[in-house]
C-alpha cells in the first residue's frame, strides 16, 4: 500500500525547556522529537527556569530557537500579573501566538491567584490572539467569567475533568469565544496508571477517572474540545523518581500513533485526526501555511512504543509497551526532507 500523505502537524502546547533546563530538553532535541512525531510547527510555553515575562527574555528565546530548531517553533508570552506593560510590546510580534496564564500551581514560577492581578491580565491583553489558561475546576469558572467580561478569546489548555468539559460546552452554547484542548495522556491514561508508573504518571492536571476520560472523547466528538495538544513536558528519569516527582510527561513522539490507535478502535475517523492535529489548531492560533510540507506514514502499520531510544532528551514515554499505528516514515518541511 502506498504511504498516506498528511499535512505537517501542529502542536499548540509544548515545553522545549530552553533556555534554563536544557538537561531535560533543548530546541534541537525537542524539534527532532516533534518531527519524529509528524509535527512541523509547535508552540512553546513560557514557563522556563526564568519565566518569559519581558520582551527581552522573549527575544533571547526566539534567537535560540532560530539557531537550533529543525522545525518551526513559535511562542506564547507569559504573565505573573505584574508585567502588563510588556503586553503591548510583544502582542503584535509574528512570533507570538498568545498569552499563557497559570491559574494553578505547576512547573515554573508564574502562578497568578490574586483576583486583582487576574483582572489586570484579562483587561491588559488587548490582542485578538488568545489567552491560554491552565485553569482547573473553580479556577476555570473564574477564567471563563473574566474572559467573557473583558471580551477576550480564551483557550482552555489540557482540559481533564468531566465537569470542565461541561463548563466549556455551556460557554460555547452561550457563544463565548472559547476553545479547548485535550492531551493524549488524559485521553489514553487514567489515574490507575499511577499505581504502575508512580512518578512517571504524575502530571498537571492529574490523570482522571474513566468517567473523565469518556467525557473528553465525547467532547472531541461533539466539538466542545477543538484540538489535541501534547503538553510535551519532558523531565529526566531522576526527576520523575524523586519524591515529590516533577510533574509532566513527554508526548510529541506518540501523539499521532495514539490518534491512529483511536481510529483503529473506532473512536474517531482519519478526518478527525487531521482536524484535531492540524485544521483546528491552524485556525485557532492563526498558524501560517507551511508550503510543500507533509508527513508520510501507513496508518495501518502497528508498532510498539519502546522503553527508550526516543528523540526527546528525557528518553522515556508514559506509553511504553502500547501498540500504536502510523509512525511517520518521512517528513518534508518546505520542500526539504527533514525525517
Ligand atoms: C508542565 C511542565 O512541566 O512544564 N507540567 C505538567 O505537568 N503539565 C506545566 C504545565 O503544562 O502545567
Ligand atoms: Zn499546564
Ligand atoms: Zn504545559
Automatic annotation (TrEMBL):
GO molecular function: allantoinase activity; metal ion binding
Gene Ontology CC annotations of this record: cytoplasm
Pfam families the UniProt entry points to: Amidohydro_1
Domain called Amidohydrolase-related: residue spans: 6-287
Listed InterPro entries: Amidohydro-rel (IPR006680), DHOase/Allantoinase_Hydrolase (IPR050138), Dihydroorotase_CS (IPR002195), Metal-dep_hydrolase_composite (IPR011059), Metal_Hydrolase (IPR032466)
GO process annotations (BP): purine nucleobase catabolic process
Gene3D superfamilies xrefs: Metal-dependent hydrolases (3.20.20.140)
Cofactor(s) of this protein: Zn(2+)
Keywords for this protein: Hydrolase, Metal-binding
Function: Catalyzes the reversible cyclization of carbamoyl aspartate to dihydroorotate.
Family membership noted in the UniProt record: Belongs to the metallo-dependent hydrolases superfamily. DHOase family. Class I DHOase subfamily.
Protein name in UniProt: Amidohydrolase-related domain-containing protein
Organism annotation: Candidatus Nomurabacteria bacterium GW2011_GWA2_43_15
Amino acid at each position: 500500500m502506498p504511504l498516506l500523505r498528511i499535512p505537517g502537524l501542529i502542536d499548540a502546547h509544548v515545553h522545549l525547556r530552553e533556555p534554563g533546563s536544557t538537561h531535560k530538553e533543548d530546541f534541537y532535541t525537542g524539534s527532532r522529537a516533534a518531527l519524529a512525531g509528524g509535527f512541523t510547527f509547535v508552540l512553546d510555553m513560557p514557563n522556563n527556569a526564568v519565566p518569559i515575562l519581558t520582551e527581552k527574555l522573549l527575544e533571547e528565546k526566539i534567537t535560540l530557537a532560530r539557531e537550533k530548531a529543525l522545525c518551526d517553533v513559535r511562542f506564547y508570552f507569559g504573565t505573573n500579573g505584574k508585567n502588563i506593560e510588556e503586553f503591548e510590546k510583544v502582542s503584535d510580534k509574528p512570533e507570538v501566538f498568545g498569552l499563557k496564564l497559570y491559574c494553578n500551581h505547576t512547573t515554573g514560577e508564574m502562578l497568578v491567584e490574586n483576583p486583582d492581578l487576574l483582572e489586570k491580565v484579562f483587561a491588559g491583553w488587548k490582542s485578538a490572539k488568545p489567552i491560554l489558561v491552565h485553569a482547573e475546576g473553580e479556577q476555570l469558572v473564574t477564567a471563563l467569567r473574566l474572559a467573557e467580561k473583558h471580551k477576550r478569546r480564551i483557550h482552555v489548555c489540557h482540559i481533564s475533568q468531566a465537569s470542565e468539559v461541561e463548563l466549556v460546552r455551556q460557554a460555547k452554547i452561550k457563544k463565548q469565544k472559547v476553545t479547548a484542548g485535550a492531551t493524549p495522556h488524559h485521553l489514553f491514561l487514567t489515574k490507575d496508571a499511577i499505581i504502575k508508573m508512580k512518578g512517571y504518571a504524575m502530571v498537571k492536571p492529574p490523570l482522571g477517572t474513566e468517567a473523565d476520560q469518556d467525557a473528553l472523547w465525547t467532547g472531541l466528538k461533539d466539538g466542545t474540545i477543538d484540538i489535541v495538544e501534547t503538553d510535551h513536558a519532558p523531565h529526566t528519569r531522576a526527576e520523575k523518581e524523586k519524591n515529590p516527582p516533577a510533574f509532566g510527561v513527554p508526548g510529541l513522539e506518540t501523539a499521532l500513533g495514539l490518534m491512529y490507535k483511536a481510529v483503529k478502535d473506532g473512536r474517531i475517523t482519519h478526518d478527525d485526526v487531521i482536524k484535531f492535529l492540524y485544521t483546528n489548531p491552524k485556525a485557532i492560533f492563526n498558524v501560517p501555511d507551511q508550503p510543500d510540507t507533509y508527513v508520510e506514514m501507513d496508518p495501518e502499520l502497528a508498532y510498539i512504543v519502546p522503553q527508550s531510544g526516543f528523540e526527546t532528551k528525557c528518553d522515556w514515554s508514559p506509553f511504553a509497551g502500547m501498540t500504536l499505528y502510523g509512525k511517520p516514515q518521512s517528513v518534508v518541511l518546505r520542500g526539504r526532507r527533514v525525517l
